[in-house]
From TrEMBL:
<dbReference type="InterPro" id="IPR014757">
    <property type="entry name" value="Tscrpt_reg_IclR_C"/>
</dbReference>
<dbReference type="InterPro" id="IPR005471">
    <property type="entry name" value="Tscrpt_reg_IclR_N"/>
</dbReference>
<protein>
    <submittedName>
        <fullName>IclR family transcriptional regulator</fullName>
    </submittedName>
</protein>
<feature type="domain" description="HTH iclR-type">
    <location>
        <begin position="8"/>
        <end position="71"/>
    </location>
</feature>
<dbReference type="Pfam" id="PF01614">
    <property type="entry name" value="IclR_C"/>
</dbReference>
<dbReference type="InterPro" id="IPR050707">
    <property type="entry name" value="HTH_MetabolicPath_Reg"/>
</dbReference>
<keyword id="KW-0238">DNA-binding</keyword>
<feature type="domain" description="IclR-ED">
    <location>
        <begin position="72"/>
        <end position="255"/>
    </location>
</feature>
<dbReference type="Pfam" id="PF09339">
    <property type="entry name" value="HTH_IclR"/>
</dbReference>
Amino acid sequence: MTEVGPGTPVITRAAAILRALADARSDGITTTVLARTTGMPRATAHRMLTALADEGLVDRASDTGLWFLGPEVYLLGSVAAARYDAAPLASDILRELARDTGESAFLSARRGDESVCVAAEEGSFPLRSHVLYPGKRFPLGVASAGIVMLAHLPDAEVTAYLEHVDLTADWGDTHSSAQLRRRVEQTRIKGYSVNPGLVVEGSWGIGAAVFNELGRPMWALSLTGVEIRFGAQRQAALGETLLLAAHTLGQRLKRKR
């Protein structure tokens, strides 16, 4: 949840609203729920929504009163995709991962201190985890994609991040700074991250970082599934598969630039 205070700049408030609408996906969201999600007074949220609607950035259903992202967001996104969207280059990689492993495969992008799922391919195994889906955001350090991107940042950036965030309120003691540091070290040793059901009990994930031309972890490939599918031996095999796929995608992105 992105909360903003009364003195928060207007642009920050607008961004929080757009992110909340994106998280709601096609279900839409009421003014009251959006205000509660962003921590704004309802009157402020309504005023901001009305102003954003005038610019085409949000849209309101006339029959239900629910708010959605607007057409202008789509147009802006289609332009930005030419530079930032790795999904088209990853589509066949995700299909192959899902086909070869039977697990659901995902591509996530780093946006500031968050990981955002941008593409998915469902696996064939009948029992599935539904924790991750396109548009879903997690703080860095949460879920396999967020863990692996955090782990591959320089030590100083990891320390600075852990000093200014407290994930325990929303994610429990398993996401304390000490626990996150331990998972960062484990991830660095293995090269890939493992999320042993820390977000939703029984839902496991493995992630591998994808680097940009400067060697920064800007994306991650991940596989998610149920606990019985993630024994120690298979974890290692899935991790190696992900590392190879992540390297392939990274090379494609470098050539694209």
